[in-house]
Amino acid sequence: MAFRYEVRLSGSGGQGLILVGKVLAEAAAIYDGLNATQSQSYGPEARGGASRSEVIISDGDIDYPKAENIDILLALTQEACDKYIVDLKEGGVLLIDSQMVTKIPEGNFQVVAIPIIQSAVERLGKFLVSNIIALGIITKLSGIVSEDSVKHAIRSRVPKGTEEINITAFYTGIELAQKWLDQNGPLNT
Amino acid sequence: METPNPNVKMWQGNVACAEAALAAGCRFFAGYPITPSTEIAEVLSRRLPMVGGNFIQMEDEIAAMGATIGASLGGAKAMTATSGPGFSLKQENIGFAVMAEVPCVIVNVQRGGPSTGLPTHAAQGEVMQSRWGTHGDHPIIVLSPCSVRETYDMTVRAFNLAEKYRTPVILLSDELVGHLTEKVEVPPIEQLGIVNRKKPLVSPDKYLPYELNESDIPAMANFGDGYRYHVTGLAHDETGFPTNNPEKIQVQLERLNRKIDRYRDDIVEIETHYTEDADILVISFGSTARSARRAVINAREKGIKAGLLRLKTIWPFPDREIEEISAPVRKIIVAEMNLGQIAHEVEWATRRSKPVVRVNKINGEPITPNEIFNAIIAQD
Amino acid sequence: MDYLQYLRLDKMPHIWCDGCGHGIILKSILRSIDKLGWDKNDIAMVSGIGCSSRTPGYVDFNTLHTTHGRALAFATGLKIANPRLHVIVVSGDGDATAIGGNHFIHAARRNIDVTMIIYNNYIYGMTGGQVSPTTPSRKKASTAPYGNPDEPFDISRLAQAAGAAYVARSTVYHVGRTDKYIEQALTKTGFSVVEVLTPCPTSYGRRNKEGTAVDMMMAQKANSVGLERAKNMSEEELEGKIITGVFVDKDQKSYLTRYNEVVEQARNAK
Question: Is B67 within 8 Å of C60 when comparing Cβ atoms?
């Protein structure tokens, strides 16, 4: 039977989560030969408000393109975490920004807390690349797409002139995830 | 990592619509910003000038529709795109395009209504408005895509049908498909079967822009081709000039409606899954049909004889197809993001000979596979 | 000149009432076109709804009779799709500045390469004399039985403020001037507007006791003030006067010129 892997990226509008979803889906579909969809749900705000972007990856047909049984949920704000946790599957991964999400909802899931936004500011001097750092972490934690594919997808999707800093951010994310795994042991997937 | 095929794109539905329009030969787009259709305008504002085409953002939705018709009369394949409130505003001029038989494509990326409703959420509430939104008896062609690839194919088809039948064609998408990004293998242009309007073969003094001919589809001269004729939204005769002659009006309006009715077999397209031995038939369209397909597959896995009939053409309504395919089934389930606009037509098509169960949702959230699956289980 | 070569005689008689000034404007348009020697195949006349908007039906050009107020929108698409066409919009005061007011100011802003002739008779004639955006204050209309409570638009000033490249106002009494303005407008690059005041004895004059068509035209003569002279007159002195003349005649890039630059840019960026 075909596998179906669900990713929900949530935070506030303007954090670049729709872009991350598109990059992840493109990496899977164009470079890894899988099927993938990306969809989003957002409010009227161009900036702020709870926003979510969802990616479904499968080796079969993807009929319903919305996440219902999430494998990995990224929450960059407390509001998004509280609002979007409901569909995280039992034993799924909740990836949070450790400084933005301080009240962790109760439930049967694995929590990965990493200072994503702070790392963007401190290590790359750019708050704006938090999204790509998160993408690196998700790539590493999920193992659902190859790092090379994501790298190519980043190059094809990010604005011209920002490729290098985004690639650096991506590897920063991979490194942060590896560090977390080294400290906490492997995830059950 | 695989070496990517350059013809495989990761496109949003709205992007596929814009790219398909270009491939179909669209060289004029007039629009007005409205969520969730705006990306179509954004892409074409960048892409049309690259091919020497014209993009214009008009002062309002009404003007965008008017400019689209004007451009088509000037010889360009023309399109506009909108959503909910904008679709309402365009209705009068859509009627003009129907009456004056001006080919053009109108994309409506449906969002929640009525009124301003839910700008960023999907709905399918314009089934009836796309059919009857403009006043008076008139024919219309409405196509509804369920995927990004199909958005591409149907946009091309919308232009082809518009040109072939000298009529506006509505592409009825929805927010979910319009904003969904998925893989599209772009077909080579020679596979698209591009159709261009039939030009007059007679000299200008013999030209009748609304000729009563065997095909019911009059040839169309573009303004500037040397055929100085008159185009009006008033009831007119074969010459295009207004008339109050009841006989002439009757024959023209009958031809106008017959022109689509008689070719309905060429226009109507459906898709079926597992209908051969189905006991319960699910009917759906657009993005909701994706959930319906999953629900039917899940039901089959549980040993329930469910089948899916997906409407690709919404108008003319696939009534004969529905009647035929549903004849052996016990029950019909219609899933749609409105309160039963298609279900009502299905009841007519099946002459209320069997129960039609409705699965409806109008809160901006898509109907899930489980919701349809549960309806199937309940009928089993 | 031979008017008949431009007219669709089989569409006569026209629908305009005895004493209506619209036919005078039509002849001015035809004289101007004839003087320019344009090929009829290269001319498109576009209109909306109303008495003036029936003009295209009577002339042997590419003619388009659209929906109420929307002529400019259709004309914009037509001109852009086929820039070789000389696109002329004819419109009435209600069509142009009430229901079509938005298109009017934006056509001017955009400086689209179209000429618009506005037949201003202060009234909705075809539907029986309802108040329009140019009906003078306190004048009567079928929907202003106590007198118009509103202030009217000054169409030429509106076009000027919105950015048209050429704006002129004349009356049907001043035929020579009207001819000249229309000819100038037709040859202008960008959006050009000629507002021509035209009497509606049936729906406006009768209700406001302005006498016969001849009386109304004589009043145009008596009340017209040239733009230069008007500059030295007080507001009181200008009360009830018609200011005529060329309000705007400026050279600025038209829409098509600017869009061609966009195409160049896009092609180079490819």
Answer: no
User: What is the bridge-based pairing of β-strands B313-315 and B141-143?
Assistant: antiparallel
Question: CB–CB of C77 and B228 under 8 A?
Answer: no
| B contact residues 18-47, partner C, Cβ 8 Å cutoff | 27-28, 30, 46
Q: Do B182 and A40 touch (CB under 8 A)?
A: no
In eight-state DSSP terms, residue B25 is T
Reported ipTM? 0.97
The pLDDT, as a whole number, for residue C55 is: 97
Report residue C69 CA to chain centroid gap.
Answer: 12
- Last residue in a domain, options B191, B209, B224: B191
**Low-confidence spans in chain B with pLDDT less than 50:** none
- Cβ-based neighbours of C221, under 8 Å, separated by 6 or more: C171, C173, C174
Torsion-angle region of B44 (φ positive above 0: left; ψ -120 to 50: alpha; else: beta): alpha
- What are residue A37's phi and psi, to 5 degrees? -130, 155
d(CA A106, CA A90): 12
User: Which amino acid appears at position B100 of this protein?
Assistant: A
Rounded Cα–Cα distance for residues C181 and C176 (Å): 9
The CATH class that applies to domain C3-269 reads alpha beta
Q: Pick from A35, A52, A63, A155 the residue to mutate for testing the B interface (most B CBs within 10 Å).
A: A63
Distances (CA, A) of B148 to A36, B10, B12, B175, B349: 12, 9, 6, 12, 29
Q: How many domains does chain B have?
A: 2
- CATH class name, domain A4-184: alpha beta
d(CA A93, CA A107): 11
Query: Domain for residue B3, yes or no?
Result: no
Residue A46 pLDDT grade (very low, low, confident, very high; cuts 50, 70, 90): low
Domain-embedded: residue B184: yes
Examine residue B368 and state whether it is found in any structural domain, yes or no: yes
Taking CB atoms and an 8 Å cutoff, what residues of chain B touch C67?
66, 92-93, 96, 233
Q: Where are the domains of chain C?
A: 3-269
The pTM assigned to this predicted structure is: 0.97
| Cβ–Cβ gap B2/A33 under 8 Å | yes
Q: Which of B27, B50, B62 lies nearest to residue C73, judging by beta carbons?
A: B62
Give the CATH number, domain containing residue B75: 3.40.50.970
Domain containing B329: what range?
A: 268-379
C41, closest residue in chain B (CA to CA): B226
Claim to verify: residue B31 and residue B144 sit in the same structural domain: yes
Asked whether A and C share 3 or more beta-carbon pairs under 8 angstroms, the answer is no
Which one of B165, B191, B217 terminates a domain? B191
pLDDT, tens digit, for every residue of C125-143? 999 999 999 999 999 999 9
